[in-house]
TrEMBL record:
Alphabetical list of Pfam families matching this protein: Pkinase
Protein kinase domain segment(s): 1-145
Name of protein: Protein kinase domain-containing protein
SUPFAM superfamilies on file: Protein kinase-like (PK-like)
GO molecular function, one term: protein kinase activity
InterPro entries the record matches: Kinase-like_dom_sf, Prot_kinase_dom
Domain of life: Eukaryota
Length: 145
């Protein structure tokens, strides 16, 4: 899920909805028949987008809903601040802002970029829980709601 694939739809009577379009990289999410738990999705390649979570760059199977959680955090941050937090979580990109983020130096990153006054503590916590570098610890979409 990315910002360019989100449409704001006026549904009438002053109500708005977000609709998703262009599911070009959508995947089928498989679940374990016995437990209902989400099964890992095989890696099949990706387009170079700056909002990709770090596990995608490992080029192995991943939990698709946790990728969506990351993208929601990235998109929320971008909508509130009008800038990306970092340009790439790809280790090959050597992004200094990603290195600060990945090491947990959020205060340094936010201060350096002048974002601290822009975001409330609740917004920061929400975004950082969605963007935990460890997908197992990352907030799920259900938990985010």
């Amino acid at each position: 899920v990315s910002l360019e694939n989100m449409l704001l739809y006026a549904s009438g009577h002053g109500q708005w909805q977000v609709r998703l379009c262009d599911p070009g990289q959508a995947v089928l999410i498989a679940a374990d028949a016995r437990t209902g738990a989400e099964l890992p999705t095989p890696f099949r390649g990706f387009a170079a987008k700056q909002f990709r979570p770090p596990e995608i760059y490992a080029k192995r199977e991943y939990i698709a809903t946790k990728v969506d959680s990351w993208c929601l955090g990235w998109s929320t941050f971008y909508l509130l601040v009008a800038n990306p937090m970092f340009h790439s979580a790809d280790p090959a990109a050597h992004d200094p802002d990603w290195k600060l983020f990945h090491r947990g130096h959020f205060s340094s990153l936010f201060s350096m970029k002048g974002w601290r006054p822009t975001l409330s503590q609740h917004a920061r916590d929400f975004i950082l829980r969605l963007m935990d570098a460890n997908p197992r610890k990352r907030l799920s979409i259900t938990e985010a709601l």
